[in-house]
Design a protein that fits this description.
This protein is α+β, with helices and mostly antiparallel strands. The protein has 2 domains: 30-136; 147-437, Orthogonal Bundle (ABC transporter involved in vitamin B12 uptake, BtuC). 60% of the residues lie in helices and 12% in strands. The protein contains 15 helices and 11 strands. It has helices at residues 2-22, 29-42, 107-118, 123-129, 147-180, 187-206, 213-240, 248-270, 298-320, 322-332, 334-339, 344-370, 378-392, 397-417, 423-437; strands at 50-56, 63-70, 73-83, 95-100, 103-104, 138-139, 144-145, 275-276, 284-290, 294-297, 372-373. The strands form 3 sheets. The chain has a 5-stranded antiparallel β-sheet with strand order 1-2-3-4-5, with helices on one face. Strands 6, 7, 9 and 10 form a 4-stranded mixed β-sheet that branches. Helix 6 runs parallel beside helix 8 and helix 13 (378-392) packs across helix 14 (397-417). The longest helix is centred in the middle third of the chain and has 34 residues, at 147-180. The protein is elongated. The two termini are 13 Å apart. Mean pLDDT is 81; it is low at 1-25 and 447-458.
């Protein structure tokens, strides 16, 4: 398994490096888009705008200069846009000053520009479409692929990004079920708490612009994981551990109620409205050329890279570490594990923290990759992750990761090649057929012949 994980880890590191290199562009992509749109607004009336260059304005922080031409004027024209902040700062998209070829805009003109142009839905995109300008991107490869191959590879990137949401959550379910043979129905809400933690991390790094990109990403991940782990530890002490030896029905009902309580807590503390995250690391990275170029954003590339590193690392940790051996011992026989000096309660508590951290990773992907989070998302993503865990094999750690990948593949490919409105019906139908053919999932095992309990999953 170690040998198989090494190529994936190397590929993930290359992906992360490409994302970080792409993030080092001297002009913020969002600010460049806005300033190009401003150029069309301040250019001579009725003249089509041809963008020549978009460059940083020397000597001024958070400012962009757009050089452009129009047909009836032979001299090169320009417009300078000053913003209230830079990347990962508040005010990144707030224009606080504009200077063109005929002077600076007055406060009233700037207010009019905001009110009747920049704040209108789709106005910036429509203005850019009228020019010859394309957003800057990082070209990783010049390989030209046939259209069908490029389209298929684009779907592969979409599958990996969606699997980065499902697989950590499915692995979290498998960690708990494999240990105590109980289904923890509140992991979807724990993931949403992690998503809110990521939002808090973004607010933190926005207020500390000197952190830098790598440190900012680490702060966001730590905030998400810490908040989810704290809540998971609290509910573990209050609900999970006291009910670990109770009947299945009582445990499931208690965790369903726990999930509802956590959702209501989020609604009351964070509000019922959907929270949108401003685009971060959204410069396109061109992986291949051709009739259908394969393009992903820096953020999605970073998410895929981290998932390809973290998920194999967790699997290796659970297989070869002392904690992994203790986890398997408690999963096999709690009484015998206690007789050998292992504290099942401590192992269960640590497992809950580890599982909640993985769930927080899924919530972070939800917030950063899809750009929004709301208190009510926990139920649906929790059910999909539970389904992914069961598809892989109840309690099987590797199976949970593969189950998340399978569901992501089915959803993405059906949406890409067929009518997306029927996606969920078809996916659930295919998964039902899979359970008919393999009731124990992809890597699950049947019941033991002795002692009347399930064989410990690998």
């Amino acid at each position: 398994m170690i040998g198989a994980a090494r190529p994936a880890a190397i590929m993930a590191l290359l992906f992360c490096a490409a994302a970080l290199l792409a993030a080092c562009s001297s002009v913020d992509r969002q600010q460049a888009r806005i300033c190009v749109a401003v150029a069309t607004a301040v250019a001579p009336a009725g003249q089509p705008v041809s963008i020549q260059a978009v460059i940083p304005l020397e000597g001024v922080s958070h400012a962009v200069r757009v050089n452009y031409t129009v047909p009836n004027m032979h001299l090169p024209l320009y417009v300078d846009c000053a913003f209230a902040g830079g990347t990962l700062e508040m005010g990144r998209r707030d224009v606080i000053g504009v200077r063109g070829y005929d002077g600076a805009l007055t406060e009233l003109q700037l207010l009019t520009l905001h009110r009747w142009f920049l704040s209108q839905d789709g106005a910036v995109s429509r203005a850019i479409a009228e020019t010859n300008w394309q957003a800057p991107g990082l070209q990783v490869s010049s390989i030209a692929l046939p259209k069908s191959v490029g389209f298929a590879l684009q779907q592969v990137t979409n599958i990996l990004n969606l699997a980065a949401l499902y697989s950590p959550l499915a692995l979290a379910f498998a960690l708990v079920y494999g240990l105590i043979r109980r289904i923890h129905m509140a992991f979807g809400q724990i993931a949403v708490i992690g998503g809110y933690g990521a939002i808090i991390g973004i607010v933190t790094v926005v207020s500390m612009p000197s952190l830098g990109l790598v440190s900012s990403v680490l702060v966001i991940l730590v905030m998400a994981g810490a908040l989810a782990a704290l809540w998971s530890w609290l509910v573990g002490r209050a609900v999970i551990l006291p009910l670990a030896d109770s009947p299945d029905r009582a445990f499931i009902i208690a965790t369903i109620g726990l999930g509802i309580a956590l959702s209501e807590m989020l609604r009351l503390t964070q509000g019922a409205r959907e929270i949108w995250v401003q685009p971060l690391l959204d410069t396109p990275v061109i992986l291949t050329q051709g009739a259908f170029p394969v393009v992903v954003t820096e953020m999605r590339l970073l998410i895929i890279g981290l998932a390809l590193v973290i998920l194999p690392a967790v699997l290796l940790f659970m297989r070869y570490s002392a904690f992994g051996r203790a986890w398997r011992a408690v999963a096999d026989d709690r009484v015998m594990a206690r007789l050998n000096g292992i504290d099942p309660a401590q192992v269960t508590g640590t497992t809950l923290v580890l599982a909640s951290t993985l769930a927080a990773g899924g919530g972070t992907v939800l917030a950063l990759s899809y750009g929004s989070i709301t208190y009510s998302m926990g139920l649906i993503i929790g059910l999909k992750a539970l389904l992914a865990s069961l598809v892989g094999g109840a309690g099987s750690l590797l199976g949970a990761v593969l189950g998340g990948l399978l569901i992501a593949m089915l959803e993405t490919l059906w949406s890409a090649y067929f009518d997306s409105s029927s996606r969920d019906i078809v996916v659930l139908g295919l998964l039902t057929l899979l359970f008919v053919l393999r009731p124990n999932g992809l890597l699950g095992r049947g019941a033991a012949l002795e002692e009347d309990h399930a064989v410990r999953p690998s």
